[in-house]
Structures are given as C-alpha cells and as structure tokens.
From TrEMBL:
InterPro entries: KR_dom, NAD(P)-bd_dom_sf, Sc_DH/Rdtase_CS, SDR_fam
Name under which the protein is recorded: SDR family oxidoreductase
Pfam family, one: adh_short_C2
Domain Ketoreductase: 11-208
SMART domains per record: PKS_KR
Length: 274
C-alpha cells in the first residue's frame, strides 16, 4: 500500500543500479512514498523486474530501463525514455557501482578502468544528463523556478572509502574519493540553478557486493571490530537517508556527504585509547 499524502507524490525519480542491494531498496522505498520510479539495471533483467514487480504489487508506479551507466548513449537513451514516459524528472539517485578487487601490484588496467568507468564516469554521465534536464524544465516552464525550493536533486552513492583508504581495492577507493570532489564541484556549479547535489557514503551494508564478508562468521566477527554500533547496515538504512536528501525536508543541505556507517569513520581502533 502506498501512503496517504506521500512525500514524493507526482515526483519522477531515476535510481541507477536498482536491480539489487541498495539501489533496489531505494527504488522500493521511494515508490512507497509516492514516486514514479525508473528502475535501471545493466544486465540483471530478472533483478530489475523483481524490484519493479514489488513496487507495482504494492500499488506504486515505475518502469524498467536497461542502461549501462558507463555508456553515454545508454544513459542519454534512459533519460529520453524517462521524459517520454513521465514528462519530467525530479530526482536522480546515482547508485550503480561495482568492485573489481586485486592487490595493487597485480591490478590490471582492465580492472582499474572498469571500476573508474562505472563508479566515476557513470556518475558524470548520469549527473550531467539529470542537471541538463532540470535546467531545461526551468527554461520550458514545467518547473517553478520562483519557488524557494530546489528545482531538482541529485544523490550520489559514494562509500566510507571516499575517506578511508582501502588496500587491495585502490580502484574502488579512487573512484569513491573522486566522487567526493566531483560531487562538491558540481554542487558548487549547480547551486545557482537551484539544483541540489549531495552524496551518501555507506559503511558495511548487507548486499551481494560484500556477501563473502557477511556470510562468513569469522569475517563477520572481525568486521564488527570496525563498526562501533556493532551491526551491519541494511539497504533500508541507506534508502531512508536517500529519501531525506531527495525530499524538500533537506532543502538547505547542499554539497554534503552523509555517512551511514554505524560509526565506521570514527576511528574505532582508538576507542580503547589507541
Ligand atoms: P550490488 O552489487 O547489490 O548492486 C550494485 C548495482 O549496480 C546492481 O544493481 C548492478 O547491476 C548495478 N550496476 C553495476 N554496474 C552497472 C552499470 N555499468 N550500469 C548500471 N548499473 C550497474 O551492491 P550494492 O552494495 O547495492 O551497491 C550499490 C552502491 O552502493 C554501489 O555504488 C556501491 O559502491 C555502494 N556501496 C555499497 C556498500 C555496501 O557495503 N554494500 C558500501 C558503500 C558503498
């Protein structure tokens, strides 16, 4: 059941990488709050369809669009189809991301490039397309530019590894560190257009990306040494924070990174005096 007077009534939201994990949770949560959600997937059509089915079966609205966020043509086609279907865009949740781990001495150029292409270039392509759409909506009068509120919102999925170095994952850490400065710079550039841009940086969230850690009791136990709050996060923990940033409740928040990590960034090794 969708809510009465939902937060995102008549809002159109694209969630990239919504076939799994955090993206799936964001798509379902936002649809539950009344948004028309574009469920993007790259290759996992079954996962995308399952997320959309859950939205539709709960009375929500959405469509499924296949697009590889690292491909300019795919991204532009996804935004065009969104506008053709719903006539506008209000929020981009730029979530898609992956890991290709290897020790630095053994990391191939292919492993490096793939992660940068999806995690960083994908953000560039999707954020640019969203920002262009928001500006166009102001120019054609379909968004009220005289309101005190923003004309469009972008939320980038970063990671605690935008500030915590991560040996064995340097391509991933470099991509997320890159997102931090990318986000802040476009936030600075787009603020005069009244477009808001923020990031969320999850810690350890229980999704397929890190299944080999949380499914192994020994690895899970040592993971808890890094989390003062002593539990792994859920995709819903992240989705709720994304919804706040996507709403007008956070209208004066711009260029910020919200850490959703149970305290992972609090240097837990120092809790016992270092
Ligand atoms: P996941 O593997 O469950 O989901 C990743 C999603 O991205 C999938 O839907 C996948 O299909 C999609 N994707 C991958 N490449 C794509 C491409 N080229 N085009 C479009 N979609 C693509 O993992 P997750 O944990 O849900 O990760 C989602 C985001 O959250 C990622 O950006 C990840 O870096 C970030 N994150 C996750 C954690 C965590 O602990 N799970 C922590 C910090 C950040």
């Amino acid at each position: 059941m969708t809510l009465q007077n939902p937060l995102f009534q008549d809002k159109v939201i694209i969630v990239t990488g919504a076939s799994s994990g955090i993206g799936r949770a964001c798509a379902i949560h936002l649809a539950h709050q009344g948004a028309k959600v574009v469920v993007n997937y790259a290759s996992d059509e079954e996962g995308g369809q399952s997320a959309l089915d859950e939205i539709l079966s709960n009375g929500g609205a959405g469509i499924l669009i296949k697009a590889d966020v690292s491909k300019e043509h795919d991204v532009n086609a996804m935004f065009e189809e969104t506008i053709q279907t719903y006539g506008r865009l209000d929020v981009l949740v730029s979530n898609a991301g992956l890991q290709k781990d290897a020790p630095f001495l053994e990391m191939s150029l292919e492993q490096w490039q793939k992660v940068i292409d999806v995690n960083l270039t994908g953000q560039f392509l999707c954020c640019r397309a969203a920002a262009r759409q928001f500006v166009q909506q102001v120019e054609n009068g379909s968004t009220n530019a005289h309101s005190e509120l923003s004309v469009g919102k972008i939320i980038l999925m970063s990671s605690v590894h935008d500030i915590i170095p991560w040996a064995g994952h340097v391509n991933y850490a470099a991509s997320k560190g890159g997102i931090m400065m990318f986000m802040k710079s476009i936030s600075q550039e787009l603020a005069p257009y009244k477009i808001r841009v923020n990031s969320v940086s999850p810690g350890a969230i229980k999704t397929p990306i890190n299944q080999e850690v949380w499914s192994d009791p020994d690895k899970y136990k040592s993971l808890m040494n890094l989390i003062p709050y002593k539990r792994i996060g859920t995709p819903q923990d992240v989705a709720k924070a994304v919804a706040w940033l996507a709403s007008d409740d956070s209208d004066y928040v711009n260029g910020e990174t919200l850490y959703i990590d149970g305290g992972m960034t609090l240097y837990p090794e120092f809790a016992d005096n270092g």
